[in-house]
Amino acid sequence: VSFSLTILGSSSAIPTSQRFPTAHLFNAGERFFLIDCGEGTQIQLRRFRIRFGRINHIFISHLHGDHVFGLFGLISSFGLMGRKTDLHIFSPPQLESILESHLNTFGHERQFAIIYHPLTGSKPKRILDEARISVDTIPLKHSTPCYGFLFREKEKLRNIRKEVIRFYNIPVKDIMPVKEGNDFVQPDGTVIPNAVLTYAPPPVRSYAYCTDTQILPKIASQIEGVDLFYHEATFLRKDEALAKKTLHSTAGQAAKLALDAGVKNLILGHFSVRYKTVQPFAEEAALHYPEVHLANDGDVYSIEPGGLVFLKSIQSATAGQINDTDT
Amino acid sequence: VSFSLTILGSSSAIPTSQRFPTAHLFNAGERFFLIDCGEGTQIQLRRFRIRFGRINHIFISHLHGDHVFGLFGLISSFGLMGRKTDLHIFSPPQLESILESHLNTFGHERQFAIIYHPLTGSKPKRILDEARISVDTIPLKHSTPCYGFLFREKEKLRNIRKEVIRFYNIPVKDIMPVKEGNDFVQPDGTVIPNAVLTYAPPPVRSYAYCTDTQILPKIASQIEGVDLFYHEATFLRKDEALAKKTLHSTAGQAAKLALDAGVKNLILGHFSVRYKTVQPFAEEAALHYPEVHLANDGDVYSIEPGGLVFLKSIQSATAGQINDTDT
């Protein structure tokens, strides 16, 4: 079952020729979740050949343009493409009036409903709870209300040992309780322990997304041990004062948090265009966390039960550049 | 003096992996005019290495998303980049309230003024009149008020023949009247005809931009003989009924108009994603107009006094594709 992340945009507020503003496409068992939607997101989705008509849930961290401006075009294209499926949007509450006012002005005929799920509060909340996956908010601290998102698979049923099930002649109706972890009691009263009948399912996988925010050491407990952790690293340590002032984080701060939380894999992104290359972000993070990934548009991370596999970069390498233009 | 056009987006309402929504960058003597601003325009400007901080005038043909949605991000980036120069926006009047409401919600600190120039009326109007160039509206017919734009250089001063000026000892103060086409009268009353003193300046160059619109044969007189004519060709003849219904044009209709108007060069664009390739657009247009250019993102057309030079395609060839994605 797929559990993968495609980076659609890895720049901060200003895009570059190589990096679009923030957007992630998260695929959990072929359910597509779009996380943030910077300008040009629909173009990246096409470029990376993602069948984006299958996106039914969009999560918007906060209402700054570089995380939102792609929504207008994406929703417009959904309408033109004849979409009929409900679209769920999770975001700070003000988005509803902004988007509805937009749709009134620019909207084409639309055959699908938009269902708004306002994000509120300063404590983590479960905002999606499905059979296979849950999504919780991670309240962050930025210049406007902002939330990270924690995606976690549900515990799976235990795997049955077919030969043992056959040996004990367990009827079909009793298989589900066994998969759920129960022992099996034979007609004569003999108890067959569950551990004999089953073996453990693969561990649940998880992905935590945190941007934009000043560093929040207290979230370590909520994201403890996640398989994949994306955190913004807008600045380098030498600009830590600026990070504090603008409520952003440095690469070093994010790496330290990743270490404290014992996450299995760390990805940094949202690089400020004031820097020419990403190399210093890797060097700074390596002082705290053993191996760090720096996001590039088009990178796909796939989390296998045993850990992370870096699948491939869809688009041509960015050669580590951030800002290669002079305007 | 430069007089060139860069295609930033050549798709219609839905962008593709190869074609962004509509936007043109027109450079007249190093004055940069942005014409329409579809989603991702600022990214294309960076990709094509255009110093877009020099854009002081933006012309919006009409208020459909694929011609407007890039404005929000572009203006936001201007703010973040520290722009201080006034920005002039020419558009149907409703844009002002839309954009101002946006800037109130998403706006960063901004050190430059936006000056709105509402486009109105059903007759051509001069909306910009500078020393070297003028811009007139070309009223079009679409499902919402829509205007094309005619850019035309001002008549230049005549070139003086230096050796003749020297021969007649013409004082410096009398040079300008001669450049303006006047004869020179010597102290003894002898008239030296201007044609002896000067030769003609290069002819003025012009560019006409028309999208989105149903075909309007009556505009032929306004655009007569322009050096470069961009017209939308959303559909092919086989879908002419659909073109009529949606107030768009076919490739054949646009080419026939180009022939009637005696334009020197024709570029078609705004291709519907219902078609897989652009080849049929060229074939259909060739039935009416001898040589047609099909717009690709990144193409640069430079108009020399003697006619058109196709400079180069900045980005890799699109191989004539329109829609290569399946969503």
Describe this structure in words.
Two copies of one chain form a homodimer. With 327 residues, the first copy, chain A, is an alpha/beta fold. Chain A has nine helices and 19 strands. In chain A, strands 6-5-4-3-2-1-18-19 form an eight-stranded mixed β-sheet. In chain A, strands 7-8-9-14-15-16-17 form a seven-stranded mixed β-sheet, with helices on one face. A two-stranded antiparallel ribbon of chain A has the order 10-13. In chain A, helix 2 (70-80) links the parallel strand 4 (55-59) and strand 5. In chain A, helix 8 crosses helix 9. The first copy, chain A, is globular. Chain A starts with a strand and ends in a 14-residue tail after the last strand. The mean pLDDT of chain A is 92. The interface between A and B is large, with 41 and 40 residues.
Keywords:
9 helices, alpha/beta, 327 residues, 21% helix, homodimer, eight-stranded mixed beta sheet
Task: Write a concise synopsis of the structure shown.
Chain A is of the alpha/beta class and 327 residues long. Chain A contains 9 helices and 19 strands.
Oligomerization state: homodimer
| Uncertain parts of chain A | none
Largest β sheet strand count, sense and barrel closure of chain A: 8 strands, mixed
**Separate helix tally of chain A:** 9
Q: Largest interface here, residues on each chain?
A: A-B, 41 and 40 residues
Shape of chain A: globular
> What is the H/E string of chain A?
EEEHEHEHEEEEEHHEEHEEEHHEHEEE
Helix content of chain A: 10-25%
Q: Cα-atom Rg of chain A, whole angstroms? A: 22 Å
> Distance between the terminal alpha carbons of chain A, to the nearest Å?
45 Å
**In total, how many beta strands of chain A?**
19
Strand order of the largest sheet of chain A: 6-5-4-3-2-1-18-19
Strand content of chain A: 25-35%
Structural class of chain A: alpha/beta
Please state the average pLDDT score of chain A: 92
